[in-house]
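Pipeline run #58 for the internal structure catalog. This entry was flagged by the ingest filter as a single-chain record with no existing model, so it goes straight to prediction. Upstream metadata was stripped on purpose; only the residue string is passed forward. Reviewer on rotation: M.T. Logging verbosity set to normal.
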Amino acid sequence: MSTEVKVPTLGESITEGTLAQWLKKPGEAVAADEPLASLETDKVTVDVPSPIAGVLSETLAKEGDTVAVGAVIARIDEKASGGAAAPSPAKEVADATTNPAGAGENPQLRGSEHAPDAAPDAEDDHSLTLSPAVRRAVLEHHVDPSKIRGTGKDGRLTKDDVIAAAEAAKAGGPVHEPEARAPAPQTPAPAKPAEQPAAQAQGERREERVKMTRLRQTIAHRLKEAQNTAALLTTFNDVDMSAVIDARAKYKDLFEKKHGIRLGFMGFFVKAVALAAKDVPSVNASIEGDEIVYRDYLDVSVAVSAPKGLVVPVVRNADRMSFAEIEKSIAEYGKRAKEGTLTVDDMTGGTFTISNGGVFGSLLSTPIINPPQSAVLGMHRIEERPVVKDGQIVARPMMYLALSYDHRLIDGREAVTFLVRVKEAIEDPTRLLIDL
């Protein structure tokens, strides 16, 4: 008896996704709720779980295909769950260098099962299911993927892992050349394998075409939509971070001991934004048709870097949260962004965005708003600069702030007032406690 595997509901307004990768191959045993495939949507990457325990008998979609919600993409044979038909994942070790022709026929690069060094220990016991980009890198650099420790999700190999292994071999480390295992007559080893990459680098100019992920396509579409629709303008100010730095240095140990998390800068800025938005409510509003929607709550979208692009999970009711609650929420979102486990609901419904380019070293930028929001605050790196205090030139840890906003809704006076309120709160954090 076969059970159909269907594309699950992906979130409100999302009707389709792209099948990014099969995590299981036909003939493999699967457990109930075990991930079978990875789907990319406009906002997140989600796994498709197995509805039952059994053996994956058939896949009905290929990697890169666009699949609709509810579409059948695979079938699982329930009766074969206890049989010996399913090969051991540990034996399905890829050997792209000894059988490149076979690798071209089999997307998963299934290799020989009798090689004495092909049985990994329990720590490395996972199937070498390689993405197209990784397979291409394996063939180009002539490395053995079974001898490379993957750093991707669930220990999977990434293109960077393959390139790093090739560089290590070139520098005198373990050389994963075809002749090191079972040489294939159709791919004779070069006389000087160590010199081949250098010769290629000197004589060839390469290009690589990689299809944009759905997330990257969505980011591109929304940013261009913001430029086409909103009347974007950016205003700047700088802020002396001395008071916040001193507060963190004084209370960081007690804060971490009590709440189990570090006291960062973001909590201060979220609190400062909440305070400033009370004085300038238009920055937390939006335009819908010919109406302006004002809100008495603040849901802050915090830009977080993820492996596949920038994502903006939402800290809801941030104006009512404590410093500890804000920091815990942001830390959890950051962790889940790296793991790829953010949901659509996590990134839906923000009313204002804070983007911290300073963590990457940015000195100044003009961020773009995230529609239908009307404003975004850009934070930048902290660096000591000479400033005048009480008639004296002194060095202070300064940060540039940038507020990009929709000029259709927010006037210049309001934008400047908002930034000044944020600056005042950061330079004198006591204002955050007594609501000034």
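catalog note: Confidence is low (pLDDT under 50) at residues 81-127, 174-185.
catalog note: The chain has three domains: 2-82, 89-203, 214-434.
status: ready for reviewer M.T.
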